[in-house]
Amino acid sequence: MVKSKNRGFSFLEILFAMVLFMVIIASFAMVFPSGYHLNLKTYRQNQAVDLADAILQEIISKPFSVGPGDLNTGDSLENLRSWTSAGGDCGTAPGCWAPHALAQFVANNPAIEAQYHYTLPRASSNQPGIQVVFLNGGAPTLAGYNPLAQITVNLAWTDNSQGVLVPRLITVRGFATYDR
Which domain holds residue 144? Predict the structure, then answer.
């Protein structure tokens, strides 16, 4: 019988290969939590953009003014320009408007809302939740010019970034034109 010179791997070689394999697996495993947190952060930011856009579309759908002969006290862009935003809980405060999109989001997602608390900053802040600016001189009058309104929605929320609450703000801007 002929003896082979191939004896296989030694214990030291197997041990070294196992340690090398474990180091490679551990380095890949460390990537997943950071990727998960980045994915969650992006999801929350996209959720905020969608919510701010829904609020913007709700505002754009409002009429420019109530109409000729009215005291201009209705739900319109002209009045919204001077109103204050009150997040999701407006109540019956005078001069207060809360968008239906935000109230609906809060009602449908109580767990998310409790954790991230999406709000429209107050009008007294340096970045108010809602700003309406008429670019062509003001609300439409009987003179008949067609103004353009720039609408800005700032939506704030808190993001839990690795155990630290970080305030975030997203801005969405749109335009509305007066069309008779």
Answer: 11-177
